[in-house]
Design a protein that fits this description.
By secondary structure, the chain is mostly beta strands. The chain has one domain. About 10% of the residues lie in helices and about 50% in strands. The protein has one helix and eight strands, in the order H-E-E-E-E-E-E-E-E. The strands form two sheets. The chain has a four-stranded antiparallel sheet with strand order 1-8-7-6. A four-stranded antiparallel sheet has the order 2-3-4-5, with no helix packed on it.
């Protein structure tokens, strides 16, 4: 039953409405775009969970890179976001662990 729930959750993340989702493989990076910042994310399998690392840099050449790390167990999600104008939702990327899979969910298009 738990496996069925995990597969259903993975499918829901993969086919969500206005966002693009994709599975991330261990030690393979994937580009992420937060509008004013962009970079890549990858993960490694560790004994305490999946160690996710995201490195971002601003569109301004003088910006210092930002590195974010988290250890996810099954069912956990971490969100990275950048703010926009007043009244606009932030640009957000979600990195989720569903069973033995890591899925990155990000906006399909950034306006």
């Amino acid at each position: 039953m738990t496996k069925l729930i995990a597969i259903a959750a993975l499918a829901a993340l993969s086919f969500g409405g206005d966002a693009a989702a994709g599975e991330l493989k261990p030690m393979h990076s994937r580009s992420i775009d937060l509008g004013t910042m962009a970079g890549s994310a990858y993960y490694t399998v560790e004994s305490e969970g999946y160690h996710v690392v995201a490195t971002l840099i601003g569109n301004n050449d003088s910006s210092a890179p930002v590195r974010f790390e988290a250890v996810l167990v099954s069912g956990q999600t971490v969100k990275l976001s950048t703010p926009r104008e007043v009244g606009m939702p932030p640009i957000m990327v979600e990195i989720s662990r569903v069973a033995d899979h890591v899925v990155i969910q990000e906006p399909a298009a950034i306006n």
